[in-house]
């Protein structure tokens, strides 16, 4: 039955035939008693949820199976107080142990090795008491430091692992070596832990350090940190670089792909089995130590340090958009109408046109993370051909939400979301995020005294009362919001693509005391005067900017042009979003290269002060076209919308 060649082949065949006929199977327990072995080994890990330990287990199992052994698994769940007892109990059920990254102290480990031999250690040195396999995490950490320094980083934060982790100590040693090599390098230390949750919880503290790069104890911690930064609207690696350790399988699929140090995880397991098998078969086998040197895998989560103050991204100043031939679309004949359900379901408020064509959907913002400053907004906003011209929570700025009023500083409260700029400190994630809460949505008819232009349908007005509250829930101001939509008049027989107009007027009332509205620019960050009625567009293949000040982002940004236009091209189609200031013209905060978005700035270079009982008005008229405008055409259309009261 056991295949030994000392038995006559004919007799062996007769025995096997009889066993098959009787469905007989040998008893492993009886065999173990006879042989004095269980043909089983145990692998003890601190956290089986960690993919690194899973890969080591796979390597041990593959090797053990080839030699007729099975593998039991014991998970200590990072409990160093019970680790020794768990390992001892596992050893009583099998022939040998593989201890992976044990957390107990050196003295305890030495005593445990004597009790559980034969044993092989992974990620821990024993001083010759037992075979050990060690990853050179000190060299790995040094590789990470050298990489980040080469990108210009001089302030790095390390998210530490479990307190009694030997590999964490090696990482720290490598970081210290890197700091000695670069006198101008500062490495900060933050306690974190070994898992995704630890990294996620550490995100605010990481941002508070103003570090330009973060190194996580392992890839899981890095994943959690990436998620936390993402929720805070922090771009990786544009705002901060992130690196991890181990190169688990998911690292290359993160967003962005994670820079990390690759460790031969499965090979560690196979090598551990070879050492253990040699010890089992030969009690005199000398203890040995093998050292594995990891390699740096550079991916998208690390990049150069952002230089200088808030930048204006220069686009093609000298490139004048060329009109492309568009397929004419039959314009709707019915005016756009708002629908507000009887149960006041905020997510069901929509603007439709013609035969159910959805142009706008209004969202109450209740599902926003608190750090994004919850507020009502419009998204998606479509052209008549169904092309969306808004974006929500994009990767580059998670706190951008379609079209809405977002202000970074109202009496010290952020209604913008993400990080707050503090002079002499920089962008910092504070707990100062306020909230805009809808107190009612209704539809009214456009007043007859408000002409809308020849041939245009009057349509309806969506009226919303919004209460702005600070981070403590105390009221700051009351907003009256009025949004009107109408079709753009079109000459009879015209082949031009049709369009429609969205007219937003909000009045902020200082009913709860005086208001001081500020921006990062007024707080010491030149050029960052954002805050107001902000329109965020999607990133597409190509975006050009037109304005009365000239062509390109750098001409429009900061200008007092009465209008700006975004011409976007995607998949052979062209659209134009024309934004017009019909009343008081404020400087434009505008971006197109880093991301497309714009708003008339309430506090461009000086705070806006509103006395108690006073008010301030925000007006913006948007034209959405399924065609590409030239500068002259955009200027003419903007004039038509503002002259003669055609608003």
Automatic annotation (TrEMBL):
Residues 1-35 form the HTH lacI-type domain. InterPro entries: DUF6807, HTH_LacI, LacI/GalR-like_sensor, Lambda_DNA-bd_dom_sf, Peripla_BP_I. Keywords: DNA-binding, Transcription, Transcription regulation. Signal peptide: none annotated. This is LacI family transcriptional regulator.
């Amino acid at each position: 039955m056991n295949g030994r060649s000392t038995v006559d082949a004919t007799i062996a065949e007769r025995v096997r035939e009889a066993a098959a006929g009787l469905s007989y199977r040998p008893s492993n327990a009886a065999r173990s008693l006879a042989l004095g072995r269980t043909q089983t080994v145990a692998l003890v890990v601190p956290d089986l949820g960690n993919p690194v330990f899973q890969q080591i287990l796979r390597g041990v199992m593959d090797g053990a199976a080839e030699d007729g052994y099975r593998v039991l698994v014991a998970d200590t769940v990072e409990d160093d107080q019970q680790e020794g007892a768990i390992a001892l109990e596992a050893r009583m059920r099998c022939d040998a142990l593989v201890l992976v990254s044990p957390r107990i102290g050196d003295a305890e480990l030495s005593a445990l090795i004597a009790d559980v031999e034969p044993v092989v250690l992974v990620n821990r040195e024993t001083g010759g008491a037992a075979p050990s396999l060690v990853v050179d995490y000190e060299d790995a950490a040094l590789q990470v430091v050298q990489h980040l320094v080469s990108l210009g980083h001089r302030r790095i934060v390390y998210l530490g692992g479990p307190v009694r982790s030997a590999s964490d100590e090696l990482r720290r040693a490598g970081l210290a070596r890197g700091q000695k090599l670069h006198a101008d390098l500062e490495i900060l230390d933050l306690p974190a832990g070994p898992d995704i949750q630890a990294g996620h919880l550490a995100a605010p503290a990481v941002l508070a350090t103003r570090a330009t790069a973060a190194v996580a104890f392992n890839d899981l911690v890095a994943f959690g940190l990436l998620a936390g930064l993402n929720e805070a609207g922090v771009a990786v690696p544009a705002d901060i670089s992130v690196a991890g350790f181990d190169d688990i399988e998911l690292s290359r699929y993160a967003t962005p792909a994670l820079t990390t140090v690759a460790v031969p995880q499965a090979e560690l397991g196979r090598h551990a089995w070879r050492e253990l098998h040699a010890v089992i078969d030969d009690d005199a086998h000398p203890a040995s130590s093998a050292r594995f040197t990891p390699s740096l895998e550079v991916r998208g989560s690390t990049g150069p340090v952002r230089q200088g103050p808030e930048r204006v991204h220069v686009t093609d100043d000298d490139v004048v958009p060329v009109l492309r031939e568009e397929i004419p679309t039959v314009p709707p004949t019915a005016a756009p109408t708002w629908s507000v359900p009887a149960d006041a379901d905020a997510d069901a408020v929509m603007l439709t046109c013609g035969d159910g064509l959805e142009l706008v959907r209004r969202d109450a913002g209740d599902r926003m993370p608190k750090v994004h400053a919850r507020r009502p907004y419009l998204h998606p906003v479509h052209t008549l051909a169904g092309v969306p011209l808004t974006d929500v929570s994009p990767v580059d700025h998670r706190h951008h939400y379609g079209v809405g009023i977002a202000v970074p500083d109202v009496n010290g409260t952020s209604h913008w979301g993400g990080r707050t700029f503090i002079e002499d400190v920089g962008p910092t994630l504070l707990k100062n995020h306020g909230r805009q809460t809808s107190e009612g949505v209704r539809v009214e008819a456009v007043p007859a005294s408000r002409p809308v232009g020849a041939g245009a349908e009057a349509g309806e007005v969506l009226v919303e009362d919004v209460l702005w509250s600070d981070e403590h829930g105390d009221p700051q101001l009351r907003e009256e919001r009025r949004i009107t939509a109408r079709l753009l008049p079109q000459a009879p027989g015209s082949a031009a693509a049709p369009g429609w107009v969205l007219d937003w007027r909000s009045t902020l009332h200082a009913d709860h005391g005086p208001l001081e509205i500020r921006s990062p620019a007024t707080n010491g960050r030149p050029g960052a005067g954002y805050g107001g009625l902000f329109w965020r567009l999607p990133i597409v293949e190509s975006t050009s900017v037109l304005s009365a000040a000239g062509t390109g982002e750098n001409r429009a940004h900061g200008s007092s042009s009465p209008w700006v236009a975004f011409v976007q091209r995607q998949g052979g189609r062209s659209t134009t979003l024309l934004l017009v200031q019909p009343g008081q013209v404020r400087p434009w905060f505008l971006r197109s290269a880093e991301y497309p978005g714009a708003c008339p700035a309430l506090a461009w270079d000086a705070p806006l002060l509103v006395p108690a009982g006073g008010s301030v008005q925000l007006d913006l008229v948007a034209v959405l076209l399924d065609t590409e405008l030239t500068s002259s055409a955009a200027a003419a259309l903007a004039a038509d919308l503002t002259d003669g009261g055609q608003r």
